[in-house]
Amino acid sequence: MARCAVCDKGAHFGIKVSHSHRRSNKMWKSNIKSVRVKAANGGVQKMYVCTSCLKSGKVERA
């Protein structure tokens, strides 16, 4: 599972509980995209970034 290169966000694990209170394992996946990003040296680098970091402007697309 990929992790965000900026905020290190990844998958979250927990237990899903139904109405009858039967419990089963559940995994919540983060919305992570593979994008081309402007690097610090002026070049272009491909990395995994979550959409919340893209929206907030922490990363600038190439």
UniProtKB/TrEMBL annotation:
<dbReference type="GO" id="GO:0003735">
    <property type="term" value="F:structural constituent of ribosome"/>
</dbReference>
<dbReference type="InterPro" id="IPR034704">
    <property type="entry name" value="Ribosomal_bL28/bL31-like_sf"/>
</dbReference>
<dbReference type="InterPro" id="IPR026569">
    <property type="entry name" value="Ribosomal_bL28"/>
</dbReference>
<dbReference type="InterPro" id="IPR037147">
    <property type="entry name" value="Ribosomal_bL28_sf"/>
</dbReference>
<dbReference type="InterPro" id="IPR001383">
    <property type="entry name" value="Ribosomal_bL28_bact-type"/>
</dbReference>
<dbReference type="Pfam" id="PF00830">
    <property type="entry name" value="Ribosomal_L28"/>
</dbReference>
<protein>
    <recommendedName>
        <fullName>Large ribosomal subunit protein bL28</fullName>
    </recommendedName>
</protein>
<dbReference type="InterPro" id="IPR050096">
    <property type="entry name" value="Bacterial_rp_bL28"/>
</dbReference>
<dbReference type="GO" id="GO:0006412">
    <property type="term" value="P:translation"/>
</dbReference>
<keyword id="KW-0687">Ribonucleoprotein</keyword>
<keyword id="KW-0689">Ribosomal protein</keyword>
<comment type="similarity">
    <text>Belongs to the bacterial ribosomal protein bL28 family.</text>
</comment>
<dbReference type="GO" id="GO:0005840">
    <property type="term" value="C:ribosome"/>
</dbReference>
<dbReference type="GO" id="GO:1990904">
    <property type="term" value="C:ribonucleoprotein complex"/>
</dbReference>
